[in-house]
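Dear support,

I submitted the protein below through the web form. The confirmation email said the job was done, but the results page showed an empty box. After a refresh the structure appeared. I'm attaching both so you can tell me whether what I see now is the final result or a partial one.
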Amino acid sequence: MPDFLIRSQGPRLAYVRTAAQGPGTALPTVMFLGGFRSDMTGTKATDLEVRSSIRGQGFLRFDYSGHGASAGRFEEGTIESWRDDALAVLDRLTDGPVVLVGSSMGGWIALLLALARPDRVCGLIGLAAAPDFTRNMVEESFDDAMRLSLQTRGFADVPTDYSPEPYRITQTLIDSGNRVCLLDRDHDLSIPVRLIQGQRDADVPWETAERIAARLPHADVRVTLVPDGDHRLSRPQDLDLIDGCVRELSAAVARRAAV
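What the results page shows now:
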């Protein structure tokens, strides 16, 4: 069962936290950030939790407001409010250095956190990271009826392969995303960044990973393209690749701390 972060403002947020033990106390905490309409019970989050626990490494997974076990309505959420959810979790539920692992929209949120908390975030792993996905959503994914609904009703119901029910996309969500877009300028981020991207991803073009890397000129960025990988990146070999990046970045942090 999850615990809940209670805030004076904003819905309560569900989370599961595993404390570091033994040799794992020398390693940074791993914080997993899920994707759009995903929750913390997904394969990638739970698999990485188990692997981290075996190492004794601290691990934290959570649900944004309106997602999973957290309170709030999805339709009232925005990129900025979900960023603020993640910041609250980072600030109040973790100590010391943190490696962020962000999936899809979570990769966008993770980048925003790294820029907001450069003193806390020591590494970032993006899994089919999708910064700025709201920017071209209407032009590329909406038909005429959806555009009309967005214009006249403030929302559109968009069919998806991930749910039998359509996703309700609001104008507020799109406007919020446009205010925090990242790919239109360079960013002064100097942490190691690992981007894993499937080339058979039907949701995020694989070139997005290279666009992210180009906007982080001061960071140690490595892009790993998975030729047969899809958007989920949840096969055993994908999970091994993700954990390998976590172990690499975590070991580097531990070595620096020991010097």
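Response: this is the final, complete result; the empty box was a page-load delay. Residues 236-258 form the longest helix (23 residues).
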